[in-house]
Amino acid sequence: MKRQHPTEPNLFWCPKCQTYKAREEFNLNQLWCKLCQSVAYKQWAQRNKDRKKEYQAIWTKQHPDNVKKHNQTGYKKHKKERNFKAAKYNKEHPTQVKETMRRNYEKYRDDRLLSSKINHQKRKESLTDVYVKMLLNEQGLAVSLANIELKRTAIQIKRIEREMINELR
Ligand SMILES: [Zn+2]
Questions:
Q1: Which H/E stretch holds residue 71?
Q2: N or C: which end of the chain has fewer CB within 10 A?
Q3: What's residue 2's pLDDT?
Q4: 47 CA distance to ligand 1 centroid (A)?
């Protein structure tokens, strides 16, 4: 290897800090040592941050209307941030999350049952495909488009029949 020490096989040359350092002090395939790399990265990040701030300040001055609009839609960004934080929390606290979910499950069980009952009633009244399919399944009949139509018509006829009988009474 090019930058290896002439007599010490475990020492390598860092051209940034101009010293020989042990193999462990280098990342794989990097010319500079870890320390020089991290210092350079921090400087680069800071420079980028400063530059971004500069550009932002200029842009803000030049686009007052856009800034106003951005502030109005800022909540979207906050929402994103909140979601990110929530996901992080969920990952770090699996037991608490499980417990909260279980508690919520119990808390809203009655509401859920009621709404599923109401939904079932709605499907039954308007004879939706889902409802008719369910009936066909229950009676072991083939679920095909033709059968759905037939079954729906049969139920409608039955309902009319019942109504007429009720009127006769
Ligand atoms: Zn170095």
A1: helix 64-72
A2: C
A3: 59
A4: 20
Q: Ligand 1 center to residue 126 CA distance, Å?
A: 76
Single-letter code of the amino acid located at 93: H
Q: In this predicted model, what pLDDT tens digit does every residue of 49-107 receive, in sequence order?
A: 999 999 989 988 888 888 777 777 766 777 788 888 899 999 999 999 999 999 988 88
16-to-35, 37, 96, 113 alpha-carbon distances in Å = 10, 9, 49, 69
CA 83 from chain centre, in angstroms, equals: 8
| 52 CA → ligand 1 middle, Å | 28
Q: Which own/partner pairs from 155-162 qualify as long-range (CB within 8 Å, at least 24 positions apart)? A: 155/127, 156/127
